[in-house]
Amino acid sequence: MDIRQEASRGLADIESFLFRQAHLRAARRRVGAFTAEESGLTAEQKEDIERWYVEEQIYVARMVTRHIADKVNAVKEQQHRRFGRWLRGILVTMTLITAAMAVFVTAILTAHG
To answer: Where exactly are the transmembrane stretches of this chain (predicted)?
Structure first.
């Protein structure tokens, strides 16, 4: 891997980290606002709810990411198979064209020879 690829990978990792942190901050803000409005909860209950909510958001984000990765891999595999079929079709076509040209050249040379 050259320096440009390493830098690109590093930037993607940083972007991913920052996105994840922003998502977690937003989740903490949402659950904090929710628990702040609930007057009947103890501080420990609020912390438990906040911890559970953030953990649930992390779990959901992983599930969504896994689902997207699975879909991307499925599409890549489908494209790979399609390209293979296309390439085989081109190979067969080129073989038939080459064989036809050989027959015609042989016929022409035989007729003139």
So the answer is: 86-109
**pLDDT tens-digit map of 36-57:** 998 899 999 999 999 999 999 9
8 A C-beta contact, residue 25 and residue 58: no
| Angle at the Cα of 20 from the Cα atoms of 17 and 22, rounded to 5 degrees | 110
Cα gap 74→103, rounded to integer Å: 43
Q: pLDDT tens across 58-84, in order?
A: 999 899 999 999 999 999 999 999 999
Distances (CA, A) of 65 to 16, 53, 59, 70, 93: 12, 18, 10, 9, 42
Q: CA-to-CA distance for 13 and 59, rounded, in angstroms?
A: 19
Query: What is the CB neighbour count within 10 angstroms for residue 31?
Result: 19
